[in-house]
Amino acid sequence: MRIVLVGPPGAGKGTQAAYLAKNLAIPHISTGDLFRANISQGTPLGQKAQEYMRAGQLVPDEVTIGMAKDRMEQPDAANGFLLDGFPRNLAQAESLDEILKADDLRLDAVLDLEVPEDEVVKRIAGRRICRRDSSHVFHVIYNAPKTEGVCDACGGELYQRDDDHEDTVRDRLEVYHTQTEPIIDYYKAQGLVVTISALGPVAEVTERAMAALDRANA
């Protein structure tokens, strides 16, 4: 299957993408991983991206599209892939269609993870990260540490990242509504969108997603 995963920040896209890709035996292709891989390997596209990033500028669509195209052409993606974070806007969505069409391929589904805005803010603004080890992540409501402000695992100080503050989260949501949400209508016109609630335990959301994808591929 060739799937695009969409949803607002805080919807759990990365978590669900990992589970879905494993269940479907297809690679999980995320924008973040694409950038890290290209930059660390010093590819021409990675070098271009780094130039823009060092200058504090947004990486142009054509660079992101080029990275995604290269990754989708790798052998492990021959039978499908799950795209997470790409396409991010209409221009990228149209380019993706052209890339697939050139190989006589098409998307099978666009999975839309739906989460109320207040829940997104609660999820992200409540996160606390350990300064000693950033893989230790807590939440003031859903996964509170035993001692406030102290990591259960190593005793490090827990802090709130700048981009997790409520006003920043709402700014990120506005960017999502303006830039990314229009691709949902674009794909709805193609009959590709399946929308599920991303509320509830991770395993339940995964089951919901797999059932929706099965129906879409029936």
UniProtKB/TrEMBL annotation:
It comes from Streptomyces blastmyceticus. One of its GO terms (molecular function) is kinase activity. This is Adenylate kinase. Consists of three domains, a large central CORE domain and two small peripheral domains, NMPbind and LID, which undergo movements during catalysis. The LID domain closes over the site of phosphoryl transfer upon ATP binding. Assembling and dissambling the active center during each catalytic cycle provides an effective means to prevent ATP hydrolysis. Catalyzes the reversible transfer of the terminal phosphate group between ATP and AMP. Plays an important role in cellular energy homeostasis and in adenine nucleotide metabolism. It is an enzyme of class 2 (transferase). Residues 30-59 are annotated as: NMP. The keyword Cytoplasm applies. AMP binds at T31, R36, Q57, L58, V59, G85, F86, P87, R88, Q92, R161, R172. Belongs to the adenylate kinase family. Pathway: Purine metabolism; AMP biosynthesis via salvage pathway; AMP from ADP: step 1/1. Monomer. ATP binds at G10, A11, G12, K13, G14, T15, R127, V137, F138, G200. It is found in: Cytoplasm. Keywords: ATP-binding, Cytoplasm, Kinase, Nucleotide biosynthesis, Nucleotide-binding, Transferase. PANTHER family: NUCLEOTIDE KINASE. Its EC number is 2.7.4.3. HAMAP family: Adenylate_kinase_Adk. InterPro entries: Adenyl_kin_sub, Adenylat/UMP-CMP_kin, Adenylat_kinase_CS, Adenylate_kinase_lid-dom, ADK_active_lid_dom_sf, P-loop_NTPase. It catalyses: AMP + ATP = 2 ADP. Residues 127-163 form the Adenylate kinase active site lid domain.
